[in-house]
Specification:
This protein is of the alpha+beta class. Helices cover about 30% and strands about 25% of the residues. The protein is built from 14 helices and 20 strands. The strands form five sheets. A ten-stranded antiparallel beta sheet has the order 9-8-7-12-16-19-18-17-10-11. A four-stranded antiparallel beta sheet has the order 6-13-15-20, with helices on both faces. The chain has a two-stranded antiparallel ribbon with strand order 1-2. Strand 7 and strand 8 form a beta hairpin.
Length: about 500
């Protein structure tokens, strides 16, 4: 992390520490890098990679679908254990699918023996019940492929009781004869074999039901990940594809309002001086001067001209003061949508994964891995996601030359006007943000420089005029992360 990013992170932390009380709802980070006690947690430094800073406008205004670029930004897994945090190439949902595909519901040796013993006893009682049924009724009812015992129980539950009952009611009944209020008179001899069969199978009913239920729930989560649909809670993205859902808070109108507010802002000032070999020296208050590649610090791109920052720095005599203003400091919370076992919708069910990790190498009944997934669940691995962001509007810049006038840049129509800008080698991903380059004058009294200040340059991000459309980007000052299976 270069010193200018460190200074920006420190300024962010200073502002965030005194932020509004409602920011305290942000979840705590697993690792403390930026101390922001006013939030009830700590933000970690973030370095924008190929995906750039956060494309916050997640709701497409035409059909209210989830913007695909925002979804991919959120879903991208973390490249952690190397400060600052970056996003990597993979997707968290893919890692989640990989891990969940290894889950099984396992019975311990003792429970398997109990099941085997009960099954043997129940088989004998089952045969007695079926033989008595044939004696009374002459034949076993047709079952359409079902086992004979299942068809017999279906007739008993469906026609011997009014209203009809579920098989589970037979096991819970204190008085079978009272429950089966529509039993044929000639079937009285069947009651005792039925009771014996239920008694034999009762000890393992919870094991069977739990195994069947959890195996079914695993299949539903896998379906939500492999075959997302509106029925299983998927979100429709702007590319018209369905994806496992994330929830973003606050809602988009509140995010836009917070970014448009000037209640919280960060101001960053530094001096840039030319050096050899394409490098510049950056001087900031409270820090020793340090070198940087010019291209990593600033690119002001004008089609047909190239990097205007090089020309501006030259026009300024090799020394340029830069003021960056980040306004609309606010927070965003992000979470995967939690699986609902009742409806079988959505996908984020972390409890079985944590249980399987804890059960590894044991002979316990519960969720286990078979086989173990090749995934690092610690904070050094990829099984995590960004759970909160401290964001602001992308910065406005003012450039001043302590010893010269930058008006020639403004007055030259081939150089001024719309430009593209990249700051710290990352703003908006591979394509830089559109800015308007225009003149600006600052009186000497408002400047920290002791030299006269002439006409300067202001670079205003065009998106900040409205913040009202897909593609709008927010600068990320820090993040909080969740590694839900790390044990911390």
């Amino acid at each position: 992390m270069n010193p200018i990013s460190q200074q920006l992170a420190a300024l962010s932390a200073s502002i965030l520490a005194n932020s509004k009380p409602e920011l305290a709802s942000l979840p705590k980070s697993a690792v403390v890098q930026i101390n922001a006690p006013g939030l009830g947690g700590s933000f970690l430094p973030f370095s924008a990679g190929g995906l750039g800073h956060y494309p916050f406008y997640y709701e497409n205004p035409n059909d209210l679908s989830f913007e695909t670029n925002t979804y991919n930004w959120i879903n991208s897994n973390l490249k952690n254990n190397l400060p600052p945090i970056r996003q990597d190439d993979g997707y968290f949902t893919n890692y989640f699918l990989q891990v969940f595909s290894c889950l099984t519901y396992y019975l311990s040796s003792a429970d398997r023996q109990t099941l085997q013993n009960a099954s043997a006893a129940a088989f004998n009682e089952q045969m007695e019940l079926l033989q008595e049924w044939e004696t009374v009724f002459g034949s076993i009812p047709a079952g359409g492929g079902q086992q004979p015992i299942d068809t017999v129980l279906a007739v008993i539950c469906g026609t011997w009781a009014k209203p009809a009952i579920q098989p589970a009611a037979l096991h819970k009944a204190a008085n079978l004869q009272a429950l089966l209020n529509q039993m044929p008179e000639k079937a009285a001899s069947i009651l005792q074999p039925l009771q014996n069969f239920l008694t034999a199978i009762d000890p393992v009913i919870p094991l069977i039901n739990t195994t069947t239920r959890n195996s079914g729930l695993i299949k539903k989560v896998l379906a939500a990940l492999k075959r997302p649909s509106l029925e299983n809670g998927a979100v429709l993205a702007s590319d018209q594809k369905l994806y496992p859902a994330y929830r973003v808070m606050p809602a988009l109108p509140a995010q836009v309002a917070a970014l448009n507010s000037d209640a919280q802002s960060i101001e960053l000032d530094f001096l840039v001086s030319s050096m050899d070999n394409g490098q510049v020296q950056v001087s900031m208050q409270g820090a020793n001067p340090f070198p940087m590649e010019l291209q990593e610090l600033f690119v002001i791109w004008k089609e047909g001209v190239g990097n205007l920052f090089t020309q501006i720095l030259s026009l300024a005599g090799g020394s340029l003061k830069v003021e960056a203003s980040f306004s609309g400091l606010s927070q965003v919370n992000i979470e995967p949508v939690v699986f609902d076992p009742v409806t079988g919708s959505n996908w984020y069910w972390i409890d079985p994964i944590v249980e399987a990790i804890n059960n590894t190498g044991t002979n316990k009944t519960g969720f286990q891995f078979a086989p173990a997934p090749d995934v690092d669940f610690t904070e050094k691995g990829p099984f995590g996601y960004i759970s909160a962001l401290a964001i602001s509007r992308v910065p406005t810049f003012r450039l001043f030359a302590p010893n010269s006038d930058l008006q020639p840049v403004i007055l030259n129509p081939s150089l001024s006007g719309d430009v593209s800008l990249s700051f710290l080698n990352a703003m908006g991903g591979e394509s830089a943000n559109p800015y308007l380059l225009k003149s600006y004058t600052c009186p000497v009294a408002n400047s920290s420089s002791t030299s006269p200040m002439y006409g300067g340059i202001e670079l205003v991000p065009l998106q900040n005029d409205t913040l009202m459309g897909p593609g709008s980007v927010a600068w990320v000052h820090g993040v909080q992360t969740s590694f839900p299976a790390s044990g911390n």
